[in-house]
Amino acid sequence: MAEISGFQSGRRLFLQAAVLGAAFPRAWAEATDAAVYGSGLPRGPFGRESTAEEVTAGLDLSGMTAVVTGCNSGLGYETMRVLASRGAHVIGTARTEEKARQACSGVAGQATPVVLELSDFQSVHACADAIEALDRPIDMLICNAGIMALPELQLVYGLERQFVVNHLGHFLLVTRLLESVSRAKQGRVVMVSSRAHFMAPDSGIDFDNLDGAVSYIPWEAYGRSKLANGLFAAELSRRMAGTRMTANSLHPGVIKTNLARHLGREIDDSRFDKTIPQGAATQCYVAAHPIPAPISGEYFSDCNPAQASDLMYDEALAARLWSVSEELVKR
User: Fold this and answer.
1) 16 found inside a domain
2) DSSP-derived secondary structure for 54-70
3) Does 222 qualify as catalytic in the annotation?
């Protein structure tokens, strides 16, 4: 473990140094996640180049329901498209009714559009109400939507926007829908985190700086929100122990999607390591494939369990984040 810890610490410092002044971190794109070997976790036959269609080939998801946030483009749309093609009823969320309807109408299979603006907690509650009104057990709850590296500090509810959109909005949505997830034969919660969680602050979650008053570094703030996704999945897994539900987080890859829209300049394509079909593979695998079904509380990359940062395994930090998040969404 000392060797792994040293590797993680060194890589994190390297990432931080490389990205603080960069529009898009080459170090992030070129890094690789350390696979978990000898841990006893089941591993599948898929890897970095696998696509969402390949990891779901032969699966019959008829009668199952999936919720996919951010369904209107990129990984969200590909995830919705592939799961619907395998027979699942996909509830696709987007920030506006027009975007959600257009996306859902573009897939072959059953897809229901629902509006979800993650920066607006009233919208999150309305989305949860609409999904609950469908009265369907949720087999797959895939929290895919997000924003990345906003160049300037933006506040929502007095909090840094990436933390609100990427973490708190999804925290509220998942906790609202847990009863529906519990009614599934085996409900799976899938949090799309990122390798960028290694770029979080030294404390992991700097609770005294959630409003950016101490400092605002775009990539560090993004890393904090992605670490929060992983910590939430880990804590949720512990709280669901003994049930049929699981929760995991993952790194999808570095993919050219609308997520990069805030970077402000054209990005060299060499920075991206996967196509959209490849990027959607890990979340489809974790959400639908039978091999990872017994796994909970882990971090995946390239369709297999991988080694996250030490901070993502900090149970005290995860518990505190849950408590603080509960209070923040109650405001």
Assistant:
1) no
2) HHTTT---TT-EEEEES
3) no
